[in-house]
Amino acid sequence: MGLVVQKYGGSSVADAEGIKRVAKRIVEAKKNGHQVVVVVSAMGDTTDELIDLAEQVSPIPAGREFDMLLTAGERISMALLAMAIKNLGHEAQSFTGSQAGVITDSVHNKARIIDVTPGRIRTALDEGNIAIVAGFQGVSADSKDITTLGRGGSDTTAVALAAALDAEVCEIYTDVDGVFTADPRVVKKARKIDWISSEDMLELAASGSKVLLHRCVEYARRYNIPIHVRSSFSGLRGTWVSNEKPQGDEQVEHAIISGVAHDVSEAKVTVVGVPDKPGEAAAIFRAIADAEINIDMIVQNVSAASTGLTDISFTLPKTEGAKAIDALEKAKASIGFESLRYDDQIGKISLVGAGMKTNPGVTAAFFQALSDAGVNIELISTSEIRISVVTRQDDVNEAVRAVHTAFGLDSDSDEAVVYGGTGR
Amino acid sequence: MGLVVQKYGGSSVADAEGIKRVAKRIVEAKKNGHQVVVVVSAMGDTTDELIDLAEQVSPIPAGREFDMLLTAGERISMALLAMAIKNLGHEAQSFTGSQAGVITDSVHNKARIIDVTPGRIRTALDEGNIAIVAGFQGVSADSKDITTLGRGGSDTTAVALAAALDAEVCEIYTDVDGVFTADPRVVKKARKIDWISSEDMLELAASGSKVLLHRCVEYARRYNIPIHVRSSFSGLRGTWVSNEKPQGDEQVEHAIISGVAHDVSEAKVTVVGVPDKPGEAAAIFRAIADAEINIDMIVQNVSAASTGLTDISFTLPKTEGAKAIDALEKAKASIGFESLRYDDQIGKISLVGAGMKTNPGVTAAFFQALSDAGVNIELISTSEIRISVVTRQDDVNEAVRAVHTAFGLDSDSDEAVVYGGTGR
């Protein structure tokens, strides 16, 4: 029996009852002979309440102090969890990110982990303790200031600790049963996935699946740490995410298609009337990059020969929309385009699966399904194991259901889709 | 203009409005040319709410984890205060006890400061920042665990930092105007004291005055740090506490009597029928000391020659009463007393003033005032600059008022007491 890292989110420890329930689950793992390291988020709404307080004293809370404030949240939940475990007769010690050796860069509010030195955790484990670690937080290598890892940071803490401690598995406990073939709120017949490759999970996360964040999966893939996403309420087997298909695991089959993801958090910017000559696209995207905006899909329309002008469209998070428009307007004179169009009524549907590489009919079947559902496609983007399209936002749910059914992912259906002959 | 340390208690930073008000006061000190270090407690009821949560998950919260939990409180208030200051256009950085270099022993929930190494505070000040430090907390030298200093610990943090940073003054902001000649809730005519010697303040604190805690004053006296106790609401001059009378301070006169303190938090234990032979008292108080109970006054009654037995009484905090009875019952056979009496309906009245040393009539006038008020005295204890008596608890308020009036401390009175001729 080896070492397991368990991560519990805010909804699992929302109140004293939740904390006691989680404590029992942790003690169970310990009784089964494991060394147990637990990463915990702030209780329920604590973080939102702290943000609210911050906004009352300062309209634009400062980075360093904002991190100092927010990290109070996990301090509360982790200490309470340690107390609840001790109350069950087991030894537990809680550690802040800094005490656990989570070393980050100095970018407040969204720091990146650059090293993990879990000496104190090792010692605590060797002395028979269950170690409880604050998720989401670290300490900067340069200034020794407290940092936070940004949204979903606790998952990253868990995976990083699992890697540093060479854990058998990193269990991510949440309020759903695992990763599904589509968002169950949209697709009633979505199936829980028993196993998914890290590669496919990365694409799902990048395409709008909310269960695991991209950088957490990336970290796990790099250090070859299996993740087990499961419910803290049911205790059922959830979804395993790993680089290789687990040997001897009967429940696992390597699906051609892993799932359908969708994302309605993006907007589309179209730069109209760009002179069709070398360097124009570069100038546009340099202006965007200088404003530190990450973009997703890019499409350049075919140039109209008569005018020598073309349009360039790209998608980006809605939250970055205003910043992008501002950056482009400022660079308008030097770039020399005609006008800007902004559209936040778009949605993205993505089909993900490593099987695409070797099943040439997937793309055709995907477009056929969308066409049959009467969904118009505005942009297309593909990778080795993913196809994404942009549609009207109103069409997204219908499109996801149509694709999910067409690829035989519905839980009641025994029929698999028959792929056509022409490759994509 | 030198360095000032300001300490704000929980009632001063109870909500966002309070934090913004305090921020303005801090910025004012900075504008006046001072380097400013601020020690802050947890907001209003935060600590009580955290204790309540702890009790919900575990009936007896554990020391280490309890400290981890409680220290979340100052983390919140200090980060918010730093944000509020930055919002006023000044630079501020917050520091945990550990970051501020507050090194303690390892006794959780009531640690003692053993060293202060404020390197990061110095750097922050040199860079033009206002430094905000979490009160009440430190880090243990041995285990590097987070510790708390116990009740009133933030005052001690402030004085300790003032000493380590060689501050001009340690300002303790609170919700009263300063130290009074008696508790104003009991004595309507109590006067605010402009200056009081550290020595007298120590005796007042030991005798039940709640404004400053004993160990905070002791620390200030040892390192010769002047304390200024004042209201965070009025901004008026409060009470200065220092070893020497300030030179050239017109408002200050060295009073014969500093004030009247009272304490109804103690109980009296009487060990009845103790054999009157050498070593008996030692055996009793060794049993008490082994149980780590601090006692206050001790009186041994005159032995009745006929029986060879005597009674020994002592006072101690009511909270320690059960423990003391338990310890004595267990040692009954080896000590050989007859029975125990426990009385928690007592009160203590103390008169404090360095002038007692040279004014021999004080004791007589004190007893006369109590006698005139019809108050019966049960125990007496004296020091160089203090007389204390134990009475029935019901008599305490009346006794305090009578003594306060008799010694000319009432604010409306111009008459000073005339001391009698016989010494005490």
Automatic annotation (TrEMBL), chains A, B:
Keywords: Amino-acid biosynthesis, ATP-binding, Diaminopimelate biosynthesis, Kinase, Lysine biosynthesis, Nucleotide-binding, Transferase. It comes from the Bacteria. Residues 269-345, 351-424 form the ACT domain. InterPro entries: AceGlu_kinase-like_sf (IPR036393), ACT-like_dom_sf (IPR045865), ACT_Aspartokinase (IPR054352), ACT_dom (IPR002912), AKii-LysC-BS (IPR041740), Asp/Glu/Uridylate_kinase (IPR001048), Asp_kin_monofn (IPR005260), Asp_kinase (IPR001341). Its EC number is 2.7.2.4. The keyword Cytoplasm does not apply. SUPFAM superfamilies: ACT-like, Carbamate kinase-like. Pathway: Amino-acid biosynthesis; L-threonine biosynthesis; L-threonine from L-aspartate: step 1/5; Amino-acid biosynthesis; L-lysine biosynthesis via DAP pathway; (S)-tetrahydrodipicolinate from L-aspartate: step 1/4; Amino-acid biosynthesis; L-methionine biosynthesis via de novo pathway; L-homoserine from L-aspartate: step 1/3. GO terms for molecular function: kinase activity. Pfam families: AA_kinase (PF00696), ACT_9 (PF22468). It catalyses: L-aspartate + ATP = 4-phospho-L-aspartate + ADP. The keyword Ion transport does not apply. It is an enzyme of class 2 (transferase). Belongs to the aspartokinase family. Catalyzes the phosphorylation of the beta-carboxyl group of aspartic acid with ATP to yield 4-phospho-L-aspartate, which is involved in the branched biosynthetic pathway leading to the biosynthesis of amino acids lysine, threonine, isoleucine and methionine. This is Aspartokinase. It comes from Streptomyces dengpaensis.
